[in-house]
Design brief:
6 helices; mainly alpha; 108 residues; single chain
Length: 108
């Protein structure tokens, strides 16, 4: 029986081998989230980035426990805004507002 890798495993391997593309990956995932409003997909992608950056390092820098980071970014997690913000900053990013144009439809 053949074992197949998940999309997350493939993305993680790719980003580990191409660390210069992590910033673009994060930008794209937030653009996609702004379009779709799919929180589960956003959290899955942020989990990938946290593994690439090192969950232990992200936990230490964010002031959360390793379990706290994993729980906040889990499929079943319901993280507080402050936790996501701390995790993003620990990974080297910040959440910033962007003005929507009047033509931008709200996410469904």
């Amino acid at each position: 029986m053949r074992n197949y890798r998940t999309i997350s495993e493939v993305e993680e391997e790719y980003l580990r081998n191409h660390p210069d593309e992590v910033d673009d990956y994060v930008s794209v995932l937030f653009d996609e989230y702004a379009e779709s409003g799919d929180t589960a997909s956003l959290m899955a992608s942020l989990r990938v980035v946290s593994r690439v950056k090192g969950v232990s390092r992200v936990a230490e820098a964010s002031g959360l426990s390793r379990k706290g980071v994993q729980k906040a970014l889990s499929e079943n997690g319901n993280p507080q805004f402050g936790s996501v913000n701390a995790i993003m900053q620990a990974m080297g990013y910040r959440l910033t507002p962007q003005k929507l144009s009047s033509e931008d439809p709200p996410p469904e």
